[in-house]
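During the second year of the project, the team shifted from modelling isolated chains to modelling whole assemblies. The rationale, set out in the original proposal, was that interfaces cannot be judged from single-chain predictions alone. As a representative example for this report, we include one of the complexes processed in the last quarter. Its constituent sequences, exactly as entered into the pipeline, are reproduced here:
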Amino acid sequence: MATKSSRSAARVMLAPAVILLLGWMLVPLTMTLFFSFKKYLPLRGDSLERGLDWVGFANYARFISSSSFWPSVQTTLVMVGCVLAVTVVLGILLALLLDQPFWGRGVVRILVIAPFFVMPTVSALVWKNMFMDPVNGLLAHLWRFFGAEPVSWLSDASLASVIMIVSWQWLPFATLILLTAIQSLDSEQLEAAEMDGAPALGRFAHIILPHLGRAITIVILIQTIFLLSIFAEIFVTTGGAFGTRTLTYLIFQRVVDSQNIGLGSAGGVYAIILANIVAIFLMRIVGKNLDR
Amino acid sequence: MGRIALNGVTKSFGVTEVIPPLDLVIEDGEFTVFVGPSGCGKSTLLRLIAGLEDTTSGRIEIDGVDATGTPPAKRGLAMVFQSYALYPHMSVRRNIAFPLRMAGLDRAEIDRRVTEAASALNLTDHLDRRPGQLSGGQRQRVAIGRAIVREPAAFLFDEPLSNLDAALRVGMRIEISELHGRLATTMIYVTHDQVEAMTMADRIVVLRAGLIEQVGSPLELYREPRNLFVAGFIGSPRMNFIDGASAREHGAATIGVRPEHIEIDPDGPWEGRIGIGEHLGSDTFLRVHDTGLADTLTVRAGGEVGLKTGARARFRPMPDKIHRFDEGGARIG
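Output from the structure prediction step:
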């Protein structure tokens, strides 16, 4: 963009996209903020036409003083953290494996990516009914085969189960990104390290892992954005019971189950704040990798 | 110490035999250059010695010890790669120290050796930079530094200068030769550039399709190439080959005369039309056409010859500098 006219032309051409995106984000955000300061209980007859009562910070105070608020924040962070850890660690191992030359590698790579194309609701239902069902699930059969008592996954190990389902969905994404990163590693670097006397683990720690730094950062940042708003998997499996109620799910319950839109909106604002805190931490910790 | 002996070494990739049985001894302290056109197996041979490829059969001995199955790190060899293969996320200091850290040396010793190598290679001011911030020549020196700190039995160079520009290449050529003079360690150097081979080597190994065509000092190869391939490969510009009647006059199927061994002589036996002249200042290389001997004859003339394109001139080959080859391309006499 060398000249003044091409710069202004660029602005004009970008404008529709920018305006659309801004509107897309600003309208819901403003509405959430607006509702969060109002008493809005549709079942009690509140509606926009009749005008809503201004209640100040009452919704905020009520949402945060609820006994389920802090546990839900904790659940959210535990879930996001565990899914990130599982997907990154397994993703690196799978990527290393898929980078090896073996017969049928092309087919295996496609199969590995497949779970990513399954809709969250569907995959959660499949896991719930076909794997984790304590009577007919595959895992129950497996447990019985070894003479063990089948686990009722979704009630006894509910949070772990949800983490497992979500990890299964996001593992392909991590694997895919990490695999492309591994493939871009210059093989002469590995050979040089081998000549320099680095054993296999040393080569992994000193050459491969630093090379993957940036890709891991991207995986963590993108996954966090999506994982903070997990909903379908919880809705379909536990319905938020047994310690799987995340902040997102709590907001859903406040708005839909309790029909309290004002309270839910206040929760939404808290969720925005939580997401930003997480984002700031992430950028501090891993964002440095992106500057290189 | 660094005497490397290859006994009947072969290498096949699937059914393709890259290196047919090959015997070669590289003496301690020798600067050996593997030279040949691309795809001749010279890099594969180097990687076999390094241990980065497994031999299909045969024995590799380093200092009299069988090293055929020894992993690369245990062979005591250091390699400089074509791409330099520096670790991009490490500073120059950590790059050079890496083999020492892997060997488990203590900190003080590592520091001492890195400092020493850095000052020998003019890298002291760049120790805390990343490879990405260095120029091509500096990166090359870091790669060499990483090799020398290990004090290896032999250095292996895989076309190390091919990524540098021409001026830098000449400089690095001299630096590597000086390094060899200083360390007196065995060096094996792979290149496709016969100028590098001629200027640096104690001994040149000319390879074609995995076969050793000739082994000898640069001047031996220049004076007495064993066959047509070596004759054509060594020397720049390449030797003129003449076959037919004029070759038979000398009792050979083909004769070869280097451009520098043909004189412009009004009474000479050969006559031709001057084509393009390449004026280098010190020398002029003339392309001579219509000689009836070969398509084009390359002749080296003095710095400033008064011959214009299109002019006709007569030439005389120096009688004692004519190489004779039989039908199979092997040298006669």
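The first helix of chain A runs from residue 4 to 36. The mean pLDDT of chain A is 87.
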